[in-house]
Write the structure tokens for this entry.
Amino acid sequence: MLNYIPRNYVCKLNKDFMLWHDKQEEYQHIETIYPVIQKVIIKIESLLEFTPERELHFCMYSSNKDAQNQLNRPINRTMLMAPLSSPDKSLIVLQSPAVDQWNGDINRMNRHIAHEVCHQFINEKSSSQKSLGDNNANLNTPPWFNEGLAEVISHKVANIPIKRFDIPGDVDFELLDEDLENLFADIRTHAFGIATSIVNHLIQFHGVKYIFDNCMQIKKIYNKTNAADAKSRAAD
Ligand SMILES: [Zn+2]
């Protein structure tokens, strides 16, 4: 059994993923979330032209208490996360609509599940590993890229336009990575906006598949693209 999944949980599966849930979970809740996951995976696989080889597990906690016990920390009642990436398995956890009605809102879940699935696909593509509390020490791509691409992809999956943020000429990537975890929501939201705009700009330039396939060289790609931008601005 995987870490972070309660022993009494059972699994509903198909060829693409496994959804772990409480044996007692309401049928209706499983039937709400299961097809969302299914559609999101198919959509992202086609956007990135990528088929994961790592087993893709989901766990829907039936109570906030289960979530906090398994993850060993306070957990917001609407929170989703990707606590585990190993060379052969990925895990995404969420909470049942019984915990909070927002967890049953299909549009919201579509977006958030897409965000987490994208993180896991980047982890696999970059041979990264993760377990909760490791400070992302074994991720081979920078946070600004992970969050930026996850946001671009989740907007595409949910069919929502991406808000444009002015990208500073000389981005301080270290500060941007720090701001993505800032406790002040305004700073964090702004950092997400900038990261998303940068990745979206690179995608418009190179295409999403190229950016995803070359995610380990993302800083180099950024520098090259930025230099080309400056040149074309100078020519104007
Ligand atoms: Zn994220």
Remarks:
- The chain has one domain: 9-235.
- The longest helix spans residues 27-48.
